[in-house]
Amino acid sequence: MDEKAEEELQNQLEFLDTDNVDKRNLKSRASRKVSFAPASSNEELDLKESKDEGFEDGEGMDIKEGEDGEMKLVAGLKKTDKKKKKKKFMLPWGFVFVGWGAGFITIGYAFYLTIQVAGGFGKEKATEWLQTMGCSLIQDILFSQPIKVLCLATFYALVIKKPDKEDENPGTPLLKGDEEYIHERLTEEELKDPDKLEALEQQKMMCPVKPPDLDDIAEARDIRFKEMKMNSVLKEIWLYMTFLLILFMMGYGNVNPDSYYIQHSVRSVFLNADYNGGTSFGSINTIPNFWSHVRGTFVPSLYTPDFDNGEPDLVNGRQKYIADKSHILLGTARLRQLRVYDDSCKLQPVMEETIHHCRDEYSAADDVEISYDIGWEEYNRTIGIEHDRDPYLKPWKYRYWDDTDSDPQYVKITVYYGGRFVVEFGNNLEADLEMLQFLEENMWVDQQTRAVFFEFAVYNPVSNVHIFAMNLVEFLTVGGSVPFVSIRCMVLDHYYGVFAYFVMAAEAAFCLFLLWFLFKEARNLKREKKQYFKSLGNWFEMITLGLAIGGVVGYFYKLFVSMRLMEALNETPNEFHSFQYLAYWDDIYMSMVGVLVFLATIKFSKLLRFNKKMLLLSHTISNFATELSMFMVMFGVVYMAFGSFCFLNFYIMYEYSNFLLTLESLFGTLLGKFDFKALVQADRVLGPMFFFFYVLLVMWTLVNMFVAIICDGFARAREAQAQMENELEIVDFMMDRFKQYTGTGEKRIKAEVKVHKYIEGVEDVQRDCDEMKHKLDDMVGRLNDFIVNTKRADKELFGDPDEAMGKPRVIYTG
Would you put residue 144 in left (φ > 0), alpha (ψ -120 to 50) or beta? Predict the structure, then answer.
């Protein structure tokens, strides 16, 4: 064989060196024994051995016997008649989501059916059934099912499955989807034909195998990195959206949409006197009005009214429905009074001869902490009185705050402590009216009374809402009284109704998300160490996680308190049970959840940082932060000046009765809420003058300056962002991926036609000459500037009137 044919054979062998494992093995086996010399007996033996060892599968080399008995080595890939195996039918990979969705739906529905079936058994049987099912599930997963699988797999492998038969002639190596044969197989005789070799060379030139373009590789690498980053951002967005949705479910699950109407209904019963005519709660301003409201409105509203024909409503009465027959009274209601000692205030020496009795405002120092006899009469402390043996003596007994389950409460005037003197109602209407008559005759409320609380709790069975009311009448030292209303709606039982199981699943998922976020932040803290606390975003994360942990702790503690309170209520339904402590923890829990939902929603904007328009707000704030801080100093000075003026001159108005209310009223004036007539009535001269200057300086000047600062910062932010580009085009990426999933998209990288321009090379001598020319031009320019500056200086010193002095002298022109 000539050298050209031998070279062609070697090229074909190198062609087999690709990424295909079968082809690499083929080449390695062919390289063991390749001979083109005339075949001798020993060489025939070697070729036969090589055929037996390396080419028994019929790949790569064909050894044929020629006419003269010589073994011929033929290069190429041998074609076989064996049909290729059909590829397995596979659905698009997007059906993975369909499978996962079906799995989650199946699990959720099975969980729903399990809870529904267990609920029908009762508490004890349901608990035993769930325990049995859990033990059975653990036994199946860990013991019985693995043994069954192993036994079945062994039986299938030894008995049913047939052993694989090796194919003696598997045929040509299977090509990949992006591979093809460059040319057909050439025999040794064809390799000796010059025409065949020339045609082969032309075919190679038509289909050259060249390395990919470096620009295409760099572009593909950048696109792939961007796709990886966008995939990460999308996963983070979808994960956080799921967490946010769960957080919304937990937050909104603690609030009933009908709470406003429920509160309005309770107000109409106990405050507005719509069901039992008499004195409304808001009209209480004297002690007689107080007794009129309690006797005619409050106590009768605790009971179910009779039918129109005068017959009692026994059914609703046994269930302790109140006057509207929509809410159930939980336990009983009570009045709680706080008093001060007589002659507790200090008088001026001048007034001591004319004033004999003076009662101070309520405070811890003047709070009454002793028990009395009927009519607030002193009794012998050594003998004592058993107040609990007689219901008419109980209202005169002093009780500590832990005896009454009451905590300090801040209202309009001051802070009132828990405990003190208590009267309970709500078991029998006639007995309650007799008690009220007795208390009014013995002046249970007198001039030493500073506050009386109206405490009761009702339940709406339709909406599953508990309502706790702690209304208050404050008797002032200056005369009269001030009513204060506090009605709180609470959702204590979250696992109620159709969505109970979804709430349970959401709470479990929230705990899992919280553990994941804690692990993530702990990992970042371990990696960054002290640098972790220098980032504002990390502090934001820590505050959010702290509120989340506090919300979880508060939720479980509130659940514990509510369960304990419900147990006590079931044991003693005819006694008063205070919901104040539970309402206090419910307020704390809802406050933490509200702040957490707010911060978590604000944090979502951080995930949209890839789009420059989404960052416009933060960039605007950062641009005007310095100017705004300086402006707020001046605004505060002017605002405090007007506040001091209004407090000192219009203190007879309620809006300006104290300094804090004055500042609030001035801020409301900025928003357009003011009463000009009241200002004129307070002072005919200073009222209009104050209003004119306040509108001129604050509402027109300072507010417009504030708006101008914001507009300037916004303009600078828009100008800076106009020169920026979006870091990631998430929307386009999502649309492209959607098109790829549906089969309507294009290739990820479009093959653009590159135009290559030919640039003639520059010789070294020419490059040196060009560089010298640039240096000379620069030197001449500098020299001309020196001459002009020198002559200008001479003109200023000597006053030369030559007009041409300012013209530059041209020394050299290229």
Answer: alpha
Residue 140 DSSP one-character state: I
What's the confidence (pLDDT) of residue 681? Answer: 87
Integer Cα distance of 789 and 787 in angstroms: 6
Which string of DSSP letters, residue by residue, matches 630-648?
Answer: HHHHHHHHHHHHHHHHHHH
How many other C-beta atoms can be found within 10 angstroms of the C-beta atom of residue 45?
Answer: 11
What percentage of the chain has pLDDT greater than the value 70? Answer: 76
Specify the 3-state DSSP secondary structure of 424: strand
Strand partners for 481? 475
Comparing CA positions, the residue from 37, 38, 35 lying closest to residue 51 is: 35
Residue 46: exposed, middle, or buried by beta-carbon count in 10 A (0-12, 13-18, 19+)?
middle
DSSP string of 529-595, one letter each residue: GGGGGG-HHHHHHHHHHHHHHHHHHHHHHHHHHHHHHHHHHHH-TTS----HHHHHHHHHHHHHHHH
DSSP state of 340: B
The bridge status of strand 421-425 relative to strand 465-475 is unpaired
The reported pLDDT for the residue numbered 501 is 74
What gap in Å lies between CA 92 and CA 89, rounded to an integer?
A: 10
Q: Are 364 and 607 in contact (CB under 8 A)?
A: no
Tell me the average pLDDT of the chain. 78
pLDDT tens per residue, range 156-165? 777 776 655 4
Name 738's Cβ contacts closer than 8 Å, sequence gap at least 6.
Answer: 745
Element (H or E) spanning 787, and its range?
A: helix 764-798
Residue 216 to residue 224: CA distance in whole angstroms: 12
pLDDT tens, position by position, 249-305: 888 878 888 889 999 999 999 998 888 877 889 889 889 999 999 999 999 999 988
